[in-house]
Amino acid sequence: MSVKLITPSSKIHNWIITTFIFTSLCIASFSLHDLVQSLGFSVFFESLFFQYDFPASLVFLFVLSIAFFCIDRRGRMGRAFEKVSRHSSWLAMGVLLITALGSWFVYHTHPLSMDEYAPSFQSEIFASGHLVGNVPIKFLDTFVFKGFQGSFLEVSHTSGAVASAYWPGLAVVMTPFTLLGVSWLCNPVLSYLTILLLARLLNEVVVSPAAKGYALLATAFSPAIVFNGMSFYGMPLQLLCCIGFTLGMIRGTPRYLLFAGFSGAMSMVAVNPFPFFLYALPWVYWFFLQENRSAKSFFWVILGGLPIVLVLGIGWKFLVAQTFQDEVALNSGATLSVFSLPSYRTVIMRGIGLAKLWLWAVPGLMSLAFLAYFFKANSRWVKVFMQAGLLSLIGYLFVVFDQGHGWGYRYFHTAWLVLPVLAAVAFEALERDVNGHQQLYGFAMATCIGTAILLLPYKATQVEAFVAKSLDQVPARVEGNSRQLVFLRLTCHAMTDMVQNTPYFNGNELRLVSGGTKLDTQIALSLGTRPRIVENFPCAQRWVLD
After folding, report:
1. For residues 224 and 362, is the Cβ–Cβ distance under 8 A?
2. Phi and psi for 482 in degrees, rounded to 5?
3. Does the predicted TM-score (pTM) go above 0.85?
4. What is the pLDDT of residues 55-84, one digit of tens each?
């Protein structure tokens, strides 16, 4: 079997067969519903996988099946890949347009989860010229759900201060967009830059224009890239910065090493440093193994990243510790409780993550990346990219949380670049078999185009329906300029994620945790001159205050 795997005439067939086999395994994993349900995963993680990923996986399989029969008899697909490589800026513009439109029409410009709301909330604070927000102390526990205090938002019950519990890198990057009133456009712009920077990185790794074009097109059309690009999550920034870090480490000049340090530091402080740490460790080891690199040259990496780490890393944590000292002391053991030795539960959890990683990429991309090790074992890049990807997967076996909300496998997204890069290496190796070009180009292009015209629109309807379902639980705003108040009943599905406000309790609409009819009435009377109920839904109640 191992001999056949590296025989030139069988390489393309091995790619296609491997893709079908692992796609079938991913689809088979949906039969584990009862087992997964017994392990107590979060309702969002479970429902998104079984209710949404399962029907989408059948579309995935349909695209793959069609691609199997596609042959590039006239060489047009090969030339199309080459054009994509030469005009990557146009592809990047297409990604910007699609994700920007998706942010508006699919995502409804709304931070769906607390993971998205916290950085967006912090960017509003920065946009106001402050470092922390402030809320009247008596309203603090209705303004921020108690279960999220210290995990998503930091609060002070002595001063009323409030801020994001996450590292502030994404909030800093989002701040200019928030100032302009288009915070929803931040991730589409980051996705645009991701395609441009990935094109630069691929120029360092492969020579074949068709291989570069395939990797870029597969990245641009992968649902994980498109839908995270529509969202408010921090992963697009982490991924972009990891590409920049990798490019800088490979180029190795002082200027690029400064860029690597800056990019790496920004990835660290974007949301949390753990994903970048896993990805970067093999690269640092690789760096010191190179004959022309030394501790002295690594100084440029440190110099590039040190200001970011000092200000947005250490400085931010010092500010949080000083401002929220009582709450930080109370939650001091929470960070360590995130980690644990791997268990049966975490293995199943990460197995589902792998299935999501597979199904949220263009069909065949992940299998081709894996086969790069066999197709071109002597490539100087395969080993370090493989190590970075594997460590990113293995490291999360020691994390006790499932990812909850999210599109694709969120915990791997920082290292997602290893898939198109390794796939490009393998694609270039496949091109050596001239007799296989027709099948190679036909299958590869069909998977990309099939994803664009079938899988992406289907997933768009799923994501829009999921977001709309959450938003529709809240009564629509009544016309007029009067200040309005919404009380959210947390007994309903996902209502905890709908408790979203401006950082200074001065918004024209407040969304507070309901404490029951009596307490809600008291709060409304304290905030308005003539408060009255205008809408009463099962999960929320809307008041007009004036």
Report:
1. no
2. -65, 150
3. yes
4. 999 999 999 999 999 998 888 999 999 999
